[in-house]
Amino acid sequence: MTTPTEAARIAGISHDTTKRWLELYADFFSPSAKPPKGYARVLSDQDLRLLLMIASLRNEGLQHKDITDRLKDAQLNDWRDLPPLPMQGETIALDMASNRAREIAEVAVLRTELNHLRTALEAAEGRVKLLEDQLQHKEGIEAQNTSLQLELERARSEVARLEGQLTAYSFGREKPINVGLIIAVALLMGAVLVVLAVLVGALVG
Questions:
Q1: What is the pTM for the complete model shown?
Q2: pLDDT tens digits for 91-101?
């Protein structure tokens, strides 16, 4: 059986930390480790091994909920995962305890930096997706623009051909045909030309 002070020395933690953990994880400790008020607190070997496990998990940077989950798993496994007790007279050096505290702080900083990096990565991935969508949209507009340009050129050629025929007929160099029909067709093609020009302008703009 071990007193809280001796347990704290073996685990390399402070006496206050030992008392806090005994209360925080009281469900896992023996009745003698959490006695009624007025009775001395005494830790069994299993209680001491529990303290060592909690110290190890804290050293890994785990938070209260995660440590509780790990302790529940160990309990379901009949505490087979508990670390062994130190050899007789063996203690955890003060500098080791200090190193553990420093490592916990470093882990917390690293976790914060990792969360920031993940957030930045997600934002960058979102921007890439947006650019890809814009590029696909632009390619679609360019394809439509090319098609309309071809239609526009064909309409211009047809209007020019009809105007040439109309001019030829006006000077009597060809067989007379229905001049009114040619004018109507030319006007229709001109209207098509205007509509296509408006569409191209809208797409390009």
A1: 0.44
A2: 444 444 445 44
